[in-house]
From TrEMBL:
One of its GO terms (biological process) is methylation. GO terms for molecular function: protein C-terminal S-isoprenylcysteine carboxyl O-methyltransferase activity. It comes from Bradyrhizobium shewense. It is a multi-pass membrane protein. The lineage of its organism: Bacteria, Pseudomonadati, Pseudomonadota, Alphaproteobacteria, Hyphomicrobiales. This is Protein-S-isoprenylcysteine O-methyltransferase Ste14.
Length: 208
């Protein structure tokens, strides 16, 4: 008995990802995921990191949010969009989402070998406060949160909006945990002073 991959594909690539122009939003995020995973091997050697159990505080909301963000959840529940933006609205959302992703990539490239998918201290780790890190302390999260919220709202499903919110909360929690960790490892005088000088995630807001 052969396995029908077309059925699996129809589940994985269904719902809001099958109709143009919302399909464009899915392609934007698939391109991001492919490039992000492909670049995951470019990072420095880890010196110390947060324990796995502690990391569940941010991993769980991101995981649940990611599941809700997928098209098959709303399709399975039979939920319809709360609103329809139209082609122009979706194209604008795609540009804004891509801009958020570009900002996140700027942050990752500027961070260089100090980047990690987990909360870690790399060898020779130091405070980076230039480029996007002079605008916000977590430009990667800023860009991704912005892009995810824009996409979720553009699609207009309760599941995508709730998924974007949960992912955003998870990234915010991860950012807070990173700051506690790095303040201890890099020193309050160095990283703590940086936190008091630069906004966390939203540009132009007061630090802290």
């Amino acid at each position: 008995m052969s396995f029908d991959f077309s059925k699996l594909l129809s589940v994985a690539w269904g719902g809001w990802t099958t109709a143009w122009p919302t399909e464009l939003l899915a392609l934007v995020w698939l391109a991001f995921l492919a490039s992000w995973v492909g670049a995951s091997f470019w990072q420095g050697r880890t010196k110390k990191q947060v324990m796995t159990l502690e990391s569940q505080r941010y991993r769980l909301p991101i995981l649940v949010g990611g599941i809700l963000y997928t098209p098959w959840v709303a399709q399975l529940l039979g939920w319809k969009p709360l609103w329809v933006l139209g082609n122009t609205g979706i194209y604008i959302a795609a540009v804004l989402s891509a801009a958020g992703i570009a900002f996140a990539w700027w942050g990752r490239l500027h961070l260089g070998k100090f980047w990690s998918n987990t909360i870690t201290q790399k060898e020779d780790h130091r405070v980076i406060d230039t480029g996007p890190y002079g605008i916000v302390r977590h430009p990667i999260y800023t860009g991704l949160i912005f892009g995810m919220l824009v996409t979720g709202i553009a699609i207009g499903l309760v599941t995508t909006i709730l998924g974007a919110i949960l992912i955003s909360l998870g990234m915010w929690q991860k950012g807070r945990m990173e700051e506690v960790f790095l303040s201890k490892e890099l020193g309050e005088d160095a990283y703590g002073a940086y936190c008091r000088r630069v906004p966390m995630i939203i540009p132009f807001l007061s630090p802290r």
